[in-house]
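Take one protein record:
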Amino acid sequence: MIDYLKNLLPRLKEFSASLDKIEVFVDRHWVFIDNNGNQHTYIFKRDGRLIMSLNGDAQTGKWEFLAAAKSILVDRNVDKILLNQALVFDGLMFLKKDGTESDPWVLVNKQVVPDLNYINYLRGLIIEKMRLKEFKLNDGRTYYYNDYNYGVGIDNGTKIYDEDFRMLTGDHQIGLGEGKKIIIKDGIVVSVIYIREYQTLKGILSVHQHNLYEMSLGDDVYFGNNKADGIIQFVRKGKIKSIEVRNGKILSVQYKTWYDLVKENKKRLLRILTFTLLLTCLIIFCSVYFRNVYSHRNDHGIKIGSQIWDTLNLNVKKYQNGDLIPKAITNEDWINYNSQKIGCWCYLRNDSSSDKKYGLIYNWYAINDSRKLAPKGWHIPAKYEFEYAINHCGGDKDFCHKLNLDREESWGHLGSRSTDGDFWNGLSFWSSTKLTETYAWFFCDCNTVDNSVVFEAGDNIRLIKDSIILK
């Protein structure tokens, strides 16, 4: 433990107080634990008396404060020792025996650290003073980063530390989940990469974007595990995006109109006119089919930027493959399904007439089921899709207003279900973003700050339309 403590000390020096006033240590309950596990109690009284106790056996000695040397002269009756300042905090003092290189005396203030676990106290002190936040990887490794951006999270320039609060050295790539990874050089984040996928006729195109919303020059591009190459075209934001890729990196990005594409491929289009007509008929049929599948919910949706949001809460009782989703009526039903990690739904306050207007309430296990909860053509939005819509609208409240969620009647009738099966008023929607093994992110009460909820809770779902991306 002493060796571990020595590794922490360099990071603590800048936060140390000075042993220049007796108020720093007088009339406090200090405990020193020796190598044999014995507890020595020291109480420095203002009148110069030193109350000493070894495992409960008390006696009185003397002490003298030498302000100029920032030292304490301790008379323990059997010997006299001079202790010099090393580090001083509210919860403990590190004192060095004068003229020696022995391990420091660690005196713990039992009033501040009741369990005497000064290592945990020091780790908490470092986290507080350095404004660190913890993040864990799937393999169990723990890292910390400086949260100087007031909740913005990890961004370019953020410092990354290991679990012993040492800045990382060398080059690292760390995946953060949700299609995001960071590139670190000597402890500093030099790049944040957003992994986005686009459907083309060649397959799924994976682009490692430096910009959250758009491709840019130099982005890495893959088909599966292989680097992409050549000219790749697909539909994006109503226009044909054409990217030139060499050895897996984007060299150029162009937007073309349909007229440009027809002009460049006139001969080819004439040869496949019949196929084009059949494909058009198929697209029309699919459009009508998917609209009919979803017509019981929404005909048009609300457009926010490049997104289309549903106008009503989700109201389905079957998975996409036709399997029935279990219904939880009683509190016991709700608790039982959650304990078995089985997806389930319920009416709002068990009112069977509420689903047409307010949708249904689901637990996380229904959202995360491989049979898919959302109808084809729609999906449950991830955290970053909420954030995109909120940023496009200008803030949380404007986003709620856009979806008509700020009306008084919404707050009066919407609600959620707690882990014990009780209902409560509120406005909250699931996202598809898993934060930990027990928590997911959700949009709550028109506020995106630090929202997390356990899998066993019940919330509404507001769907977002899939992107239509073609070659």
The chain has eleven helices and 31 strands. The chain has four domains: 2-120, 130-192, 201-264, 302-465. Residues 289-298, 408-412 have pLDDT under 50 and may be disordered. The longest helix spans residues 273-294.
